[in-house]
Write a structure and sequence with these properties.
The chain has 616 residues and is α/β, with parallel strands linked by helices. It has 20 helices and 24 strands. The protein has an 8-stranded antiparallel beta sheet, with helices on one face. A 6-stranded antiparallel beta sheet has the order 5-6-7-8-12-13. A hairpin with a 4-residue loop joins strand 12 and strand 13. It is globular and about 80 Å long. 2-deoxy-2-amino glucitol-6-phosphate binds next to helix 10.
Length: 616
Amino acid sequence: MCGIMGYVGEKQALAVVVDGLRRLEYRGYDSAGVAVVSGGQLETRKKAGKLANLESLLGSDPLPESVIGIGHTRWATHGGPTDANAHPHVSEDGKVAVIHNGIIENFAELRDELTQAGVTLRSETDTEVVAHLLAAILPSTGMDLAEAMRLVCRRLSGAFTLVALHSDIPDVVVAARRNSPLVVGRGIGENFLASDVAAFIAHTRHAIELGQDQVVEITRDQITVTDFYGVPAEVTEYEVTWDASAAEKGGYETFMAKEIAEQPKAVADTLLGRVDAAGLLKLDEMRLTEAQLREIDKVVVIACGTAYHAGMVAKYALEHWTRLPCEVELASEFRYRDPVVNVRTLVIAISQSGETMDTLMAMRYAREQGARVLAICNTQGSTIPRESDAALYTHAGPEVAVASTKAFLTQLVACYLVALFVAQVRGNKFGDEISAIVRDLSDMPRKVDLVLDTSEEMKALAAELKDAPSVLFIGRHVGFPVALEGALKLKELAYMHAEGFAAGELKHGPIALLEEGVPVIVIVPSPTGRGLLHEKIVSNIQEVRARGARTIVIAEEGDESVVPYADHLIRIPACPTLMQPLVATVPLQVFAAAMAAAKGHDVDQPRNLAKSVTVE
Ligand code: AGP
C-alpha cells in the first residue's frame, strides 16, 4: 500500500500535499516524492527513506510555488526503495508525472513494448510505464489527460490507483482506480485526491468514494468521474465523521483491526501476477532457476514467532506437494544445533520486517554452509531479502500493529506458492493438479472475507472470557500451528497465560491442566480432510469436556459432528485441508485483540514488544 495525494486549488500545493503524505506515511514509508506544475514546467523532487528525507531535500532544493501538485509515499512492491524507484515517475519529454498504488500485472510486456519503441526506462518499477504511455499518446492525438488516462487504463491489468499531472495542462489532476483505493475530497475552490480521507480531512470532510474502473478529473471547481470508456459515472458523496487519528486507521479503532480487515485483499494481492493463463505458477521474480530447484534434497524453514508458525504450516504443504523433507527451525536455535545443511538444502527465511536479527544470523549461517536461501518477506529492500539468494515478497502492505495478522496470512500464501512452484518444476504434480490447487487458492480471499463475519461472535466471547486465568488452544495437522498462533496472539495482546498444543499431545501431560471452566479453543480440521484427523480431534474435544473444559470449537460449515461437544461453535468456510489456516486463524486474531481491548491494553503497541526485533 502506498500513500497517494493530489491537490488543485488556491493554496500552496506543496504544503497541502506534504501534510497529506505525513498523514498517510503509515501506509508506506520507504521513499516519498512530489510533483508540481509551475510556469508551464513540471518539477519533481523524490527521495528514498522516510518523508523527512524528502522534506530536507525540499529545504535544500525547493520547488517553485504552485497551486497544483501530487505526492506519494511508497511501500515498494517492484524495485527496491531507491531515489530512482521513488514516485513520481516522469515521461522522457519531462511533461507527465505519475504516482501509483498497487501492482500493474502486465508491466513486463509494457516495459518491453516501450523499450522496443526506443524509450529509456529509468527505474525498476511497474509504475514508470504509465508515464511513458501517457506521454506517447498525448501530443499526437490531441486527447486531454483524462481521455489519455482512460486509454492507458484499458491496457492495464492488476491493481492500480494512478494519479497524473501534465505540464501543459496546469489546472487539471487526473486519477484512475482499479482494485486499489482512491477517494476525492470536495472543497471550496479546491479539490483533493487521496488513498484515504486522512490526507485531506483537515481541509474538507466532503468525500466521494470512487468505484471500480473509474477515472476522475479534478480542477479547482470541478470533479468529473467516468468509467474507463468515458461514460459518466454515478458517484455518492458522504461526510467524513472520523477525527484525523481515526482516519489514519481507515475508521477502525486500531491498526490491528484495520489490518485484520485488510486480509482478504492482502491475500489476493499476494496471489496477483503469479499465475499464468493456464493456471500454472510463474515466479520468475524469485530468481531461483529450475535447475537449482531440481537439485534440492531438503528444505529448512527458519523464522521467529508468527513467521515460525507460518513455516510450520509450510512444512505440511511442502512435504505433501513436493515429497521433499522439510524441517522447521526457530531461527534463534538453528545455528547452535550444528544443523545438517549443504548446497542441496533450500533454506526459506520467513520474515515480515526482513530485519529480525535471529532470522538474519541463522540465514547467514546457512549460507556459510553452502545452502541457497529464499526470503519470504513483506518489506522490499530490507536486510534479509537483500542478503538472500532469492526473494518472494508478500504484498500485505505495511503492517503497523506489532501483532502480526495480514503478514501471517500472506506468508502462508507465499509458502503455498513456493511449495507448488517447486512441485511444478520438479514434476511432482501434473499441470492440471497444480491449476486445481491454484483455483482453490484463488478462492481463499473470498473465504477470508467470509470468516471476518465471525468477528462479533469472537468479541462477545472475549467479553465473557476476559477474566479467565488462561486459555488453551488445540489442533491437529495444520491446525496445530494455528493453535500456537492463537496462543501467541493472546499472550502478546492480553498478557495472559495461553498455550497451544498438538491435540494428540494432551494425554501425555498437559491434560492435567484442565479443570472446571478452563476455556479450550479447538481448531477442527475438515471432516473430508486427511484420514482420521477429524475423528481424532472430536475425541480430543470429548476428552477435555470430560474434565470440565469450556469448549470453543472452530469448525467448518456443515460439520455437525462437533455440535454436541461445543459450548461455543464458531463456523468457518469449508476449504482444502492445507489452506484451512487462512480462515481458522482469523477468529483467533479477533479474539485476542478483543481480549486486549477488554482489559484496556494498547492493542497496536503491546507492552515489552517491538514490531521488528533487531537484536539477538
Ligand atoms: C507476532 O505477532 C510478533 N509480532 C512476532 O512474533 C513476529 O512474528 C516475529 O518477531 C517475527 O518478525 P518478522 O516476521 O518481522 O521476522
